[in-house]
C-alpha cells in the first residue's frame, strides 16, 4: 500500500450498484455509492453505456475498494482530541452550540487539570506512529491563555496543537508565540464587513469581533497554519464570495464556510435556506478558482475541498463530519472544562452523552462507553432516504447531535438538499479539471493514482 494518499479516476464502471445521473447539461455520472468508484462522462456520447475495459477495471478494483471504505468507516483510530479548557466565552453568538448558561457560568480548568488531561492523552497514544492532535476549542480558550501556552511549551514535541479563537483576547506577543511553536490557529470571522460580521459574531460587550479578527489576520499574514472559520447563517450567506475576496487579500490560505449547526433550538432562526446557501457557496468556490488563477496564490475553501477529497481520495479527508458513522467518539472526542469526555463538542449540552471524566478514568474507557458506541452506531444504512442515496458515503448525513436534539438521531441531515447540490458541483469541478485550483498544493503532492483509465 502506498504511503501516499490514493487518488481515483476512471471513465466508467458497471454492474453491482452502479448509479447513473446527470451532473449538468454537459456531463453525466456513473457511481458505485458503496465504495465511490466513479466516472464522469460527456453527455453527448449517447446512452449510459460503458466500455468493456471499464467494466473489467471496476470488477478488478471493487473488492479492495469495498474493504478500504469499510476500514475507513469503522477502523480508523482516534487521532484528535478537542480540549475545552474553559466553558466560558466573551462572545454571545446567536448560533452557539453551547447552552448560554454554561457559557456564562461554566467552569475553567486549572493548570494541574489541563496537565492531567494531556498526560492521559499521551498515555492513550503511547506507541502510536503519529503525534496526537490537540485543538483548544469551544467557548473561548484564550480566556485561559496562560495555562494553554505553558502546556504547549511543555508538550509541543509530543503533540501537534491548534487553537480556535474569536481573537478578542489575542495580542501581538501571542502571535509570536503561536508562530514559534508552529501552532495551528483558526480565527472566527463571518463576513468581510464589520456591519454584517457583528450581527452574528457578537461580543459580551454588545459589539463584535471584526476589528480584532482582522488585526489578527494582519499579524498572521502569510502564516501557513492560519485558517478562518466562517459560520454561514442568514446574515452572511449572500456575502460568501465577497468574504473569499477579502480573505484572499489578507493572504489567508484556507477558509471554512461551514453551515451553522442547529443543535440548539434558537439557531433555527439564523439557519440559511439550503438552496440559497448552495448557490452562494458555489459562487464562493468559483471566486476562489478565479483568484487562484489570476494571482497564482491559493485560497482553499476547506469544506468544499473535503467534498472533493471524499470523491477522488476518500480516505484522505480529514473533516470527519461527512462520513458515516461520523468521527465523533471515533476519530476525535471532546474534553470539556469539567473533564467530561463527549463524542463531539456538539454534545456538550447533553450530559447523557458523557463517556466518563478524564480526571478519573481513561480515554480508552470513554471510547468503549455506551454513549460513544451509540454515536458510532448511527449509520446512513439506518436512515430513511440516506440508505438509498447515491451520495451517502460522500455526505455522511451530518450531524447526529442536531438530529438527537430534534428527537430522532436516525433522521437525515438538516442540510440534505444543500449537500446534494454541493456534491454535484464537486463532480462538475472534477469533470472540468479544476481540482488543482481547489485543493492545497501539498495535498496533491501527496497523491498517487490508485487506478486510472
How far from one another are the termini?
20 Å
Shape: globular
Q: Main sheet?
A: 9 strands, mixed
Structural class given helices, strands, pairing?
Answer: alpha/beta
Strand content: 5-15%
**Gyration radius from CA atoms, angstroms:** 22 Å
Mean pLDDT: 91
The largest sheet has its strands arranged as 11-10-9-8-7-6-5-12-13
pLDDT under 50 segments (min length 5)?
Answer: 11-15
Helix content: 25-40%
Number of strands: 14
Number of helices: 17
Explain this structure.
With 453 residues, this protein is an alpha/beta fold. 38% of the residues lie in helices and 14% in strands. The protein has a nine-stranded mixed beta sheet. It has a three-stranded antiparallel beta sheet with strand order 2-3-4. Helix 3 (111-124) packs parallel to helix 4 (145-155), helix 8 packs parallel to helix 9 (274-295) and helix 10 crosses helix 15.
Layout of strands and helices, then pairs:
Layout (H helix, E strand, L loop, with lengths): L4 E4 L10 E4 L4 E6 L4 E6 L9 H23 L5 E4 L16 H6 L5 H14 L8 E4 L8 H11 L4 E6 L6 H9 L3 E5 L5 H7 L9 H10 L6 E7 L7 H10 L4 E6 L14 H22 L4 E2 H11 L19 E4 L5 E2 L20 H5 L2 H7 L15 H4 L4 H6 L10 H16 L3 H4 L2 H5 L1 E5 L2
Parallel strand pairs: 1-14, 5-6, 5-12, 6-7, 7-8, 8-9, 9-10, 10-11
Antiparallel strand pairs: 2-3, 3-4, 12-13
Amino acid at each position: 500500500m502506498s504511503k501516499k494518499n490514493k487518488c481515483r479516476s476512471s471513465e466508467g464502471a458497471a454492474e453491482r450498484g452502479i448509479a447513473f445521473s446527470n451532473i449538468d447539461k454537459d456531463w453525466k455520472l456513473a457511481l458505485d455509492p458503496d465504495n465511490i468508484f466513479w466516472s464522469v462522462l460527456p453527455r453527448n456520447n449517447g446512452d449510459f453505456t460503458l466500455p468493456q475495459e471499464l467494466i473489467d477495471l471496476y470488477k478488478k478494483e471493487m473488492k479492495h475498494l469495498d474493504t478500504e471504505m469499510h476500514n475507513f468507516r469503522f477502523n480508523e483510530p482516534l487521532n484528535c482530541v478537542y480540549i475545552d479548557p474553559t466553558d466560558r466565552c466573551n462572545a454571545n453568538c446567536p448560533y452557539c452550540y453551547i447552552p448560554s448558561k454554561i457559557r456564562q457560568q461554566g467552569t475553567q480548568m486549572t493548570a494541574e487539570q489541563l496537565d492531567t488531561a494531556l498526560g492521559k492523552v499521551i498515555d492513550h497514544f503511547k506507541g502510536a506512529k503519529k503525534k496526537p492532535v490537540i485543538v483548544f476549542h469551544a467557548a473561548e480558550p484564550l480566556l485561559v491563555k496562560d495555562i494553554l501556552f505553558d502546556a504547549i511549551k511543555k508538550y509541543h514535541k509530543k503533540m501537534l496543537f491548534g487553537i480556535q479563537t474569536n481573537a478578542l483576547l489575542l495580542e501581538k506577543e501571542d502571535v509570536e508565540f503561536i508562530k514559534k511553536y508552529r501552532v495551528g490557529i483558526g480565527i472566527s470571522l463571518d463576513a468581510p464587513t464589520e456591519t454584517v460580521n457583528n450581527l452574528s459574531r457578537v461580543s459580551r460587550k454588545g459589539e463584535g469581533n471584526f476589528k480584532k479578527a482582522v488585526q489578527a489576520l494582519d499579524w498572521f499574514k502569510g502564516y501557513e497554519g492560519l485558517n478562518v472559520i466562517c459560520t454561514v447563517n442568514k446574515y452572511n450567506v449572500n456575502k460568501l464570495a465577497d468574504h473569499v475576496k477579502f480573505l484572499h487579500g489578507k493572504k489567508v490560505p484556507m477558509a471554512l464556510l461551514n453551515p451553522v449547526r442547529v443543535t440548539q433550538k434558537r439557531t433555527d432562526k439564523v439557519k440559511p435556506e439550503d438552496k440559497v446557501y448552495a448557490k452562494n457557496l458555489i459562487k464562493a468556490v468559483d471566486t476562489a478558482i478565479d483568484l487562484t488563477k489570476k494571482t497564482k496564490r491559493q485560497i482553499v475553501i476547506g469544506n468544499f475541498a473535503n467534498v472533493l477529497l471524499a470523491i477522488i481520495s476518500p480516505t484522505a479527508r480529514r473533516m470527519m463530519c461527512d462520513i458515516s458513522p461520523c468521527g465523533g467518539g471515533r476519530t476525535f472526542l471532546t474534553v470539556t472544562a469539567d473533564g467530561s469526555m463527549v463524542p463531539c463538542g456538539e454534545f456538550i449540552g447533553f450530559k447523557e452523552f458523557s463517556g466518563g471524566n478524564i480526571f478519573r478514568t481513561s480515554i480508552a474507557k470513554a471510547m468503549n462507553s455506551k454513549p460513544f458506541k451509540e454515536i458510532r452506531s448511527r449509520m446512513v444504512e439506518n436512515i430513511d432516504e440516506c440508505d438509498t442515496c447515491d451520495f451517502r458515503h460522500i455526505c455522511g448525513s451530518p450531524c447526529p447531535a442536531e438530529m438527537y436534539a430534534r428527537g430522532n438521531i436516525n433522521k437525515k441531515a438538516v442540510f440534505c438538499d444543500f449537500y446534494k447540490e454541493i456534491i454535484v458541483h464537486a463532480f462538475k469541478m472534477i469533470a472540468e479539471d479544476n481540482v488543482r485550483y481547489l485543493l492545497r498544493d501539498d495535498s496533491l503532492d501527496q497523491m498517487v493514482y490508485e487506478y486510472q483509465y
